[in-house]
């Protein structure tokens, strides 16, 4: 019998299909655990940088790995492995300290040992005011969530990272705070929407390094008005095309 005459092994069938599905799930699990994880933005606390309806990828290896890097956060170990410090100004996904089942996203403002305070709407780090310059107004409810013009201020942190913040309400409760001293192994987080953000000034408190999940990297999809990305028929009018595949900074 020649080679061409040998019986061919049958392929396909339920067993092979199951095997392919299992391999795909394992690959997805590895990517989600160690490389990238998708997140959606559920609130307006990071406006104008991030909007409700933004979908983004978070880089998991940016700060090393903790038990919160794993699905369901099993208590297998404490602390972080291959740890790397976040930089001031990074936009970070982390587990809400009072309830680690919840994911929060804010900007790193204070590093361990820093003294943080808000005075009349200006941020002070180690008793030095962070430069805050009014750059204009936004009159777009999709960005501000209110039907009126909102002042926008550009802040520049000591390491040169700049970003825009919203000033929805003059003399709000978060515009004047006590001085916070960031403990070792913790970080002070704030939202860019300063008057509408539950962050380290309030119930979030200091965020332990172990609670960091990853650094926000890129917006891969964005849709307005609370629509689902699965509602494809709404894409022509609701997809925010200018935000697709833009970096988060």
From TrEMBL:
<dbReference type="GO" id="GO:0004252">
    <property type="term" value="F:serine-type endopeptidase activity"/>
</dbReference>
<keyword id="KW-0378">Hydrolase</keyword>
<dbReference type="InterPro" id="IPR019757">
    <property type="entry name" value="Pept_S26A_signal_pept_1_Lys-AS"/>
</dbReference>
<keyword id="KW-1133">Transmembrane helix</keyword>
<keyword id="KW-0812">Transmembrane</keyword>
<dbReference type="GO" id="GO:0006465">
    <property type="term" value="P:signal peptide processing"/>
</dbReference>
<comment type="similarity">
    <text>Belongs to the peptidase S26 family.</text>
</comment>
<dbReference type="GO" id="GO:0009003">
    <property type="term" value="F:signal peptidase activity"/>
</dbReference>
<protein>
    <recommendedName>
        <fullName>Signal peptidase I</fullName>
        <ecNumber>3.4.21.89</ecNumber>
    </recommendedName>
</protein>
<dbReference type="InterPro" id="IPR019533">
    <property type="entry name" value="Peptidase_S26"/>
</dbReference>
<keyword id="KW-0472">Membrane</keyword>
<dbReference type="InterPro" id="IPR019758">
    <property type="entry name" value="Pept_S26A_signal_pept_1_CS"/>
</dbReference>
<dbReference type="GO" id="GO:0016020">
    <property type="term" value="C:membrane"/>
</dbReference>
<feature type="active site">
    <location>
        <position position="106"/>
    </location>
</feature>
<feature type="transmembrane region" description="Helical">
    <location>
        <begin position="20"/>
        <end position="39"/>
    </location>
</feature>
<feature type="active site">
    <location>
        <position position="45"/>
    </location>
</feature>
<dbReference type="Pfam" id="PF10502">
    <property type="entry name" value="Peptidase_S26"/>
</dbReference>
<dbReference type="InterPro" id="IPR000223">
    <property type="entry name" value="Pept_S26A_signal_pept_1"/>
</dbReference>
<keyword id="KW-0645">Protease</keyword>
<dbReference type="InterPro" id="IPR036286">
    <property type="entry name" value="LexA/Signal_pep-like_sf"/>
</dbReference>
<feature type="domain" description="Peptidase S26">
    <location>
        <begin position="16"/>
        <end position="221"/>
    </location>
</feature>
């Amino acid at each position: 019998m020649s080679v061409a005459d040998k019986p061919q092994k049958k392929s396909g069938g339920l067993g092979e299909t199951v095997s392919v599905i299992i391999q795909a799930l394992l690959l997805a699990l590895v990517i989600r655990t160690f490389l990238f994880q998708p997140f959606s933005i559920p609130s307006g606390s990071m406006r104008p940088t991030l909007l409700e309806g933004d979908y983004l990828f978070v880089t998991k290896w940016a700060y090393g790995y903790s038990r919160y890097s794993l699905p369901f956060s099993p208590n297998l170990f404490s602390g972080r492995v291959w740890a790397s410090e976040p930089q001031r100004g990074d936009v970070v996904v982390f587990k809400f300290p009072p309830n680690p089942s919840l994911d929060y996203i804010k900007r790193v403002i204070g590093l361990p040992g820093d003294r943080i305070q808000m005075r009349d709407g200006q941020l002070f780090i180690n008793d030095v005011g962070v430069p805050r310059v009014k750059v204009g107004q936004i009159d777009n409810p999709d960005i501000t969530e209110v039907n009126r013009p909102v002042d926008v201020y550009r802040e520049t942190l000591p390491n040169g990272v700049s970003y825009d913040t919203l000033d929805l309400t003059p003399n709000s409760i978060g515009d004047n705070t006590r001085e916070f001293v960031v403990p070792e192994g913790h970080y002070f987080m704030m939202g860019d929407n300063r008057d509408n953000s539950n962050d380290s000034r309030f119930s979030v408190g200091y965020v332990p390094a172990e609670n960091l999940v990853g650094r926000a990297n890129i917006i891969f999809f964005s849709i307005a008005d609370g629509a689902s990305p699965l509602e494809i028929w709404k894409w022509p009018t609701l997809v925010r095309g200018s935000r697709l595949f833009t970096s988060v900074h």
